[in-house]
């Protein structure tokens, strides 16, 4: 096997360079002389995460597809702490990313199963009030491209960045209570009736029909004269404002051939 470097990182004071090689070794080098100082042994698969401690130049964190998370003392070439990301009934979860907190007392990792792992000192009480499963209901919505090659949300036919803030749901698509919906940026000051999602039945890729969030509803949808969906009303308002801006630009622009390129209109 030809050795290949998969990741490289300097320590906090730039005195050392750590490289991860596809033979599962981590190598510590003197950044000034290029001398190899240590071979760090422990990983059983390729490593794509190397994170230095925010203020301690001795500490380096590594994580890889083998589910192992190591904290190393790179000045001594020794292993300080080791965690293994075992998932009950599913084997281990490959670790894709890790970051230290600014104070260096905690670090968080994400794995291949969608888990956020938080390590550190103290108790976990502040995190217990947060649901175990949190996803945006638009996370796995399909996208399409129109004739101008613009990306649109398949269901609403709108550009994703123009859509209203999403709802928080669990792994099965069931919405969380309104107190958690206010954690989403853009929904902090919404009234309770605007935090109630509209549920509907959606077919998954394997043909199974499940109930999921499809939009936003009001409390009294059956009253005449009200919008059937707040989401649809917001989309129409955005389209109206865009049409007004386009008309104003056309009136102020000099006569002659126009380029005509812009955001596509959708009914």
From TrEMBL:
WD repeats: 1-39, 40-82
A GO BP entry: cytoskeleton organization
Region (Disordered): 238-267
UniProt cross-references to SUPFAM superfamilies, sorted A to Z: WD40 repeat-like (SSF50978)
Superkingdom of source: Eukaryota
Sequence ranges of Polar residues compositional bias: 249-261
The entry's keywords: Repeat, WD repeat
InterPro entries associated with the record: Bromo_WD_repeat, WD40/YVTN_repeat-like_dom_sf, WD40_repeat_CS, WD40_repeat_dom_sf, WD40_rpt
Gene3D superfamilies hit by this protein: YVTN repeat-like/Quinoprotein amine dehydrogenase
GO (cellular component) term, any one: nucleus
PANTHER family per record: BROMODOMAIN AND WD REPEAT-CONTAINING PROTEIN 1, WD REPEAT DOMAIN 9
Stated name of the protein: BRWD1 protein
Organism: Leptocoma aspasia
């Amino acid at each position: 096997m030809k050795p290949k470097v998969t990741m490289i990182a300097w320590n906090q004071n730039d005195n050392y360079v750590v490289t991860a090689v596809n033979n599962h070794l981590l190598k510590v080098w003197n950044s000034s002389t290029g001398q190899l100082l240590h071979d760090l042994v422990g990983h059983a698969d390729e490593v794509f995460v190397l994170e230095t401690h925010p203020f301690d130049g001795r500490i380096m964190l590594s994580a890889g597809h083998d589910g192992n998370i190591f904290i190393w003392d790179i000045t001594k070439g020794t292993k300080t702490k080791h965690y293994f990301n075992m998932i009950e009934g599913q084997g281990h979860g490959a670790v894709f990313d890790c970051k230290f907190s600014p104070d260096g007392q905690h670090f968080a990792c994400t794995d291949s199963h969608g888990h956020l792992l938080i390590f550190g000192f103290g108790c976990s009480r502040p995190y217990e009030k947060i649901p175990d499963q949190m996803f945006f209901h638009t996370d796995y919505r399909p996208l399409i491209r129109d004739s101008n090659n613009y990306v649109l949300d398949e269901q609403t036919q709108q550009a994703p960045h123009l859509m209203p803030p999403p709802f928080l749901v669990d792994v099965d698509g069931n919405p969380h209570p309104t107190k958690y919906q206010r954690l989403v940026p853009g929904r902090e000051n919404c009234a309770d009736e605007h935090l109630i999602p509209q549920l509907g039945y959606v077919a998954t890729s394997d043909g199974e029909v499940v109930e999921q969030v499809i939009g936003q509803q009001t409390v009294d949808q059956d009253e005449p004269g009200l919008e059937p969906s707040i989401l649809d009303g917001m989309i129409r308002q955005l389209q109206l404002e865009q049409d007004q801006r386009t008309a104003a630009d056309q009136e102020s622009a000099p006569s002659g051939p126009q380029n005509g390129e812009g955001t596509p209109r959708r009914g």
